[in-house]
Amino acid sequence: MTWVPDAPPTAPRMGALHWVVALPRLVxxxxxxxxxLGSYLVxxxxxxxxxxxxxxxxxxxxxGVSRGTxxxxxxxxxxxxEPLHEGGVLVANHASWLDIFVLSAGQRLTFVxxxxxxxxxxxxxLARATGTLFIxxxxxxxxxxxxxxxxxAARGELLLFFPEGTSTDGRRILPFxxxxxxxxxxxGLAEDLRLQPIAxxxxxxxxxxxxxxxxxxxxxxxxxFLAVLGRWRQGRVEVHYGAPIAVRDVPGRKALAAAAEASxxxxxxxxxxx
Length: 274
Description:
Blueprint: H1 16-51, H2 58-73, E1 76-80, E2 88-92, H3 98-106, E3 109-114, H4 123-129, E4 133-135, H5 142-154, E5 158-161, E6 194-203, H6 221-229, E7 236-241, E8 245-246, H7 253-268
Parallel strand pairs: 1-7, 2-5, 2-6, 3-4, 3-5
Antiparallel strand pairs: 6-7, 6-8
Helix pairs in contact: 1-2, 1-6, 2-3
């Protein structure tokens, strides 16, 4: 699913000054991201010998790379509320590829994504390499997926997914897809599992349209990535951490999706049902 807006995205301005700013940042970001990925793959092999599926070292490396990438971009992040740091599920609205760096910088995460993401250029490769759990929308595999998620939660991992099912222009919240919550209600999971809603809201750089950071419609990754890198004066992003919801207190997936969506909308600044 790809969200298509009423008004198409505005083509980014790419003047000479833009490239003077973008190219050094691109080099630094590439060295950090791919150097970090190489280190991750080596360390993960060693880590697996001593800790199995747990990632006490490589999860910190992933967080450090995310923080460094945001610093290279010059994007300021303000965090509001108290984030969970172990054993739970996180759900957030989805505006951009930037969300991955913004959220990973704040918490050591394991991403949960639809299986189609594994085949995406660049992003899919990075997702596979860093231990993303891929979910197939197939009832035949539901049991195995519940076991996989349960094992990750039992290890104390924080599982993050985007229940809108697509990225937007960053100016709205789309309805949360209730079927995506079913995997967190399996036997043995709901007793202790907590779900934390997170709202991400971007403010564009001076002079740019409000949707600047949103990655949506027919936008390609590379042009949008370069457009962001080339802004000398970046905007900012606010990350609001909501009160965790005890999954055992919610009667089913639809109620859980509705409760999470209402919390995200409230933090984002929308009325429930808007």
